[in-house]
């Protein structure tokens, strides 16, 4: 599965595996998620522990809910 073989649509990538089409999260979407997590977990953002925990729970829950159709076993 190489970058040039991936087609992107709404943050998903499509690839073939054993003759079947599969979905995965596009690398650009993964990068955006990692960047957002770094922003949320940074110490200089002025959030307290409880607020940070709540924001992380909301973001990760929404992200995994949106990409629930994708094959993310290795990524998560």
Residues in β-strands, percent: 15-25%
User: How many separate structural domains?
Assistant: 1
Question: How many H/I helices?
Answer: 2
Overall radius of gyration: 15 Å
Q: Major sheet: size, sense and barrel closure?
A: 3 strands, antiparallel
Measured as a percent range, the helix fraction is 40-55%
Roughly how many Å apart are the termini?
Answer: 18 Å
pLDDT averaged residue by residue:
84
Class derived from helix and strand content: alpha+beta
The low-pLDDT segments are none
Helix-strand sequence: EEEHH
C-alpha geometry: elongated
**Widest sheet, order of strands:** 1-2-3
β-strand number: 3
Key phrases:
43% helix, 3-stranded antiparallel β-sheet, 3 strands, alpha+beta, 76 residues
Characterization of this structure:
With 76 residues, this protein is of the alpha+beta class. The chain has one domain (3-66). It contains two helices and three strands; from the N terminus they run βββαα. The chain has a three-stranded antiparallel sheet with strand order 1-2-3. A hairpin with a 2-residue loop joins β1 and β2 (12-17). α1 runs antiparallel to α2 (49-66). The radius of gyration is 15 Å and the shape is elongated. The two termini are 18 Å apart.
Outline:
The chain has 76 residues and is of the alpha+beta class. It contains 2 helices and 3 strands, in the order E-E-E-H-H. It starts with 6 loop residues before the first strand and ends in a 10-residue tail after the last helix.
